[in-house]
C-alpha cells in the first residue's frame, strides 16, 4: 500500500491522472466518431478511415507527443491544432468528417483494393523504393527545356517597369473607377506593354522564355472537373452592393453596380487517378514511423530540416483535410476574376515536397485562373533539380522553369519570376507547401475588389516531424516585435467584438509572413517590387509589408484560403555569407528606409553595432528613399497608429526633467544645459532607445575635449560627479551611482 502511495505522490499522481483522463477522452472520442457516421453508400470506406484514426489515436496516446518546432523566421508561436475529427476542432464545429474527406468519400470514386489491413498510416517498411521513384519522376516523359535567366535584366526592369507604370494612364484610370468597375478588364490582359518590354529585353539578352500555348487545356482530368461544370452551371446571378468592397466573401451581395455574375467558390481537387486511401500520410494524417527507421530519418533530416524520409513516402498528390470555416464553401466570388501566375522559388528543395507543392496548385486551382506556374531555380546544387525536374514538369504545359545562373537569394529570385510572369496577379508560394481546396479564388477576389489589397492565405502547419496537416487557430495575424522580429498574434478581442468579426472575414495584417501572398502584378511594380538590395533571405517580408501599408495598400489574411507550409527549425540551404550578418544587413536597410524616428527602436534592441559603418555596409539606399518620397508614403508613426495600434511603441523610453539619483551629494542635480543653451526654454529631455539623453535632434555629449557637456552628437554617457554640483562626462560605469539618472515620465521600465 505504502508503495502504491509513494507512486501516487508528486509526478506519479499527475501521470496517473493524465492516464485516466486520456482513457476517458479516448472513449468519448470513439463514441463521437461512430455517431457522426451514417452514410450507407460509403460505409465500408468510412469504417476503414475510422479504424485507422482509432489506431492512430491509440498510437499517439502511447507515444510522447512531439511538439512543433517553433518557426525561426515565420516567427513566434503559430497556434495549431491537429485535425483529427469533428470533436477536436473546437473553434470550428462546422468541420465534419464527411466534409474533411469530402473528395475521397465521393461514392463515384473508385477505391483501390488494399490488403494492408489495420496497418493504415503506420509506415510499411516494405514499400518498394523503385516503385516510389517511378511514381515520383514520371517515367519516360519527354524533357522540358528550362529557361536560363539573366537576373541583371530582371532587376533593371523593376525600375523600368516602375517608370512605365508611373506614366500609365490605365493605372490612374483603373484607380479612379475601381469601385464601379473591375480593374481587370480583359484588355488589361493584353495591354501589358511593360510586360512585353520586359520579355523583349529578355529575348534580346539571349533569354529564351517558354510559353504555354493559349489553347492548352489543363492537363488534369478528374471527377472534380465535373464538379466545376456543375458549380458554374448553378451560378446565381446575384446583384452586388454599391460598395463592392463590402465583403462579398461573407455573403453580402444585394445591390447592382457590377454586372458580372458570381458563383460559389470552386472546391476543386483534381487528380489523375483515384487516390489510395491507404497511402502513407493520406488525408494529411500524421505518420508514426517504426523506431527502426530512426536512423534513416535522421540521416536524411538535414536535406530539408524536416522529415524528408517520410515526405518521400507520401503521395505527391495526397488529400488534405478541408480546414476552412464552414461557410467558406458557400461563399460567392466573381466569375471574371483575374488570372494568376504562381511563382515558386527554390534552392535545393526536397524533390517530394517540391512536387507536392506544384501538384497541390495544379489540382486545386480553377484552370482558367491559373495562367502558369513558374519555378525559379535559385542555382540549386542538387542534380535531381535539373534534368529530372525538367522531364517531370514537361507533362504539365502550365509549368515553366526559370534557372538562375548564380545564387541570388529568395528576394531577387522572386523578382526574376515576376519579370516573366504573364498572369495579372502574382501569387508567391514557398516550395514546401500544400494548397488546400478552394484556396485561390478567395485571394483573387480580394485583388479584384481592390487592386491595392494584398491577400495572404491562412498559413497552416505541415508538421516537420510526422508530416500531418494541422489547422491553425482563427483570427491569427502577422505582427512584429522589436527588433523587427516577425510573429503571430491573435486579433485583439475588442477589435473582434467591435467589428463583429466572423471567422471568415478578412483580417487586417500588419506584417505578412512573407512566403505566401497574391499581389496585382502592376501594383507590385508600382510599389517598386522588393528592394533588390536585400540579400538571400530575411527582412523582405518587413520591407514589403511596411511599403504596402504606408503607401496606400492593405495586407489581409483571408480565412477562406488556406495553405499548409512546412515550418523548419533551420534554413536547409547555405548562405553565401554569414546568415546572421545577411539578415541583420537586410533589416538595417528596411529600418533606414521605412522606420523614421522609430529606427532607434530597431537599433536600440541589440543592433547598435549596425550603426558602425566599419562593421557593416548596408549598401546604397538612394533609390529606396526616393521611391518612398515619390509614392508619397505615410510615416511609420501613421502605420503604428493606424495599422498596428495595439502595439505599444513609445518612441523614447522616458522624458521630462532629468535628475540625478545621487541626491545625498547634491540636492539640486537636475540636468540643465550650460548658459549657451539656457536660451532654450525647454529643459526637458528624452531618454532614447539608443541610451542617449536627447533634445529634438541633439544629444547631450562632450564639449570639445574636456569633461563639460553640450548638445552635440549622440555619443558618450552622461554622469554626475560628487565634487561640486556640476555635471561632467565620464566613461560609463554601470555600477556607479553617480551615473544614475531619473526622468519625470517613463514609458517603459
Ligand atoms: N529560397 C530561395 N533562395 C534562397 C533562399 C530561399 O529560392 O536563397 C526559397 C526557398 O527554397 C523557399 C522560399 O525561398 O521556397 C522561402 O525560404 P524558406 O522556406 O527557407 O523561408 P521560411 O519559410 O523558413 O521563412
Ligand atoms: Mn518556407
TrEMBL record:
According to its UniProt entry, this protein's organism is: Cyprinodon variegatus (Sheepshead minnow)
The keyword Magnesium is annotated on this UniProt entry: no
Coiled-coil residues are none
Q: Which SUPFAM superfamilies match?
A: Nucleotide-diphospho-sugar transferases, Ricin B-like lectins
Query: Which InterPro entries does this one have?
Result: GalNAc-T, Glyco_trans_2-like, Nucleotide-diphossugar_trans, Ricin_B-like_lectins
EC assignment: 2.4.1.-
Topology term for the membrane:
Single-pass membrane protein; Single-pass type II membrane protein
Q: Where is this region: Disordered?
A: 111-144, 177-204
**Keywords, in A-Z order:** Disulfide bond, Glycosyltransferase, Golgi apparatus, Lectin, Manganese, Membrane, Signal-anchor, Transferase, Transmembrane, Transmembrane helix
Pinpoint the Glycosyltransferase 2-like domain residues: 341-524
Designated name of the protein: Polypeptide N-acetylgalactosaminyltransferase
**Cofactor(s) needed by this chain:** Mn(2+)
- Pathway where it operates: Protein modification; protein glycosylation
